[in-house]
Amino acid sequence: MTENIENILRDECNLEKERPIIVGVSGGPDSLCLLDILRQAKYPVIVAHFDHQLRHESAEDARLVEKTASRLMLGCHISGADVRAYAEKEKLSIEEAARNLRYQFLFRLARERNAQAVAVGHTADDQVETILMHFVRGSALSGLKGMSHRSIIKTFDPEIPIVRPLLGMWREETVVYCAANGLRPHYDSSNDSIDFQRNRIRHLLIPALETYNPKFRDAVIRMSQSLKGDYSLLMNMLETAWQETVVEADENSVTFDAAMLSNCSTGLQRNLIKHAMQTLSPNVDVSFSTLDRATTLIHVPASASSRIDLKGGLRMFREAKYFYICTADAELPFNMWPQLTGGTTSVSLPMPCQVELAGGWKFACEQWRLPVLAREQAERNEDPFQVWLDAGNLTKPLRLRIRRQGDQFAPLGLDGHSQKLSDFMVNVKMPQRARDNWPLLCAGDEIIWVPGYRPAHGYRLTEETRSVFYFSITRPRQQIG
Question: Is the Cβ–Cβ distance between 421 and 409 less than 8 Å?
């Protein structure tokens, strides 16, 4: 393994020899082996030790690490905290609290020292234990594939990676390495305690499983390598599906095209929802039951009131042609629809004209002098944001305006009968928060077209039509974050 370590450092961990690396050193054989390998490979390293204060001898551990760094003429930073008190305060397990505080220290130091990465001494044994911990919790593929040589943990830093060069070495190999290179690791008595889940897996579960397969640990590593390939394939599919289904994304919300999302397989839907949740809240724990509720919502009949709470303050709901996943305080975008905003309640429309609407939408109108062609276009048209109307009946001034109290509308399909505009908006499931500023095409005070839905019955094209007005609203260019 050590013969190939240079390739792993360069190709798998993507490390360069120009910038420093923060090396987490506990003082055990794994971290000392990692430190010495990096040092001998001529990488600039900075030793970092975090005292968890869980054992009486922990302060002595810190002194030994500092002494080792001094002997090797390396910079060393020591920090610590009362992990047990932090765990009680934050209602975390001791293991999770220790990891949080340790990584916060390592990545804070990496940022301060402009380090290219944080390096930790996880071995193949740690890989097996981690996979089994994920398996016991019922993890998905992302957990069962195990750790990678290089990854970003957004919880701690969105840019600086954590690298694990020793994932291909067994713990026994690091002990042999330390003995062969004159390194003196110290013994951490807490590694024997079965109070911690990882230790129970190490000392109880793995030996029991090795009675069924003596090479059980090798089998888990092979499975991990195979699943990494599957996971990479899934991520490629997810990236393609994300580009196809996501209409807009920012720090507070992700907007999906409902039809495109519904056409994805259930497995892909779950991964898209999970990715959206973790994009908005990197720390959120996404369970299968949460994703199952989300995919159930996708398949229920469209309704303006369809919504669920997900996890960690995130929620998901549908509005007309879109699904939103957003934070509790998100200001949802309005540019999914045409809107008259900025205090504008009415706009006069000369012929021809083009009007800028909110959010990059545009309204245009022009006159067509070939009614036969207009009827052909209207019959083939599937875009609800364009319409051809009988200009002969449009004798009053044209304008766009927002709705008013008591508005009536006689939509195409009701044979000239009118209804309350508010009832029409409810019936066609127009998003509720978009109704107040929805642009309505009017002749005088009469509504002749509700863009995106229907024209008025009395202004439809007929065989007697001799002059035609064409109206359209175009969408802004989509931007996906």
Answer: yes
pTM of the prediction? 0.71
Helix (H) or strand (E) holding 471: strand 468-474
Q: How confident is the model at residue 294 (pLDDT cuts 50, 70, 90)?
A: very high
The tens digit of pLDDT for each residue in 435-473 reads 999 999 999 999 999 999 999 999 999 999 999 999 999
HEC-encoded secondary structure of 225-281:
HHHHHHHHHHHHHHHHHHHHHEEEECCCEEEEEHHHHHHCCHHHHHHHHHHHHHHHC
| Cα 348 from Cα 354, distance rounded (Å) | 11
The 10 Å Cβ neighbour count of residue 210 is 12
Class of residue 315 by CB neighbours under 10 A (exposed 0-12, middle 13-18, buried 19+)? middle
Report the alpha-carbon distance of residue 167 to residue 119 in Å, rounded.
12
Task: Convert the pLDDT of each residue in 41-68 to its tens digit.
Answer: 999 999 999 999 988 888 888 999 999 9
* φ and ψ at residue 266, rounded to 5 degrees: -60, -40
Residue 473 C-beta-side C-alpha neighbours within 13 Å: 24
From the CB of residue 461, how many other CB atoms can be counted at a distance below 10 Å?
Answer: 20
**Average pLDDT estimate for 126-140:** 92
Rounded-to-integer distance, Cα 320 and Cα 432, Å: 10
184-243 pLDDT, tens digit each: 998 777 777 787 888 999 999 999 999 999 999 999 999 999 999 999 999 999 999 999
Side-chain-facing half-sphere of 268: CA atoms under 13 Å: 18
26, with CB counted inside 10 A (0-12, 13-18, 19+), is buried
Distance of alpha carbon 342 from alpha carbon 439, whole angstroms: 13
Integer Cα distance of 38 and 36 in angstroms = 5
Choice among 100-114, 177-191, 361-375, 404-418 with the minimum mean pLDDT:
177-191
**With contact defined as beta carbons under 8 Å apart, do 311 and 286 qualify?**
yes
Residues 89, 106: contact at Cβ < 8 Å?
A: no
Q: Which domains does the chain have, with CATH numbers?
A: 2-212 (3.40.50.620), 225-326 (1.20.59.20), 346-474 (3.50.40.10)
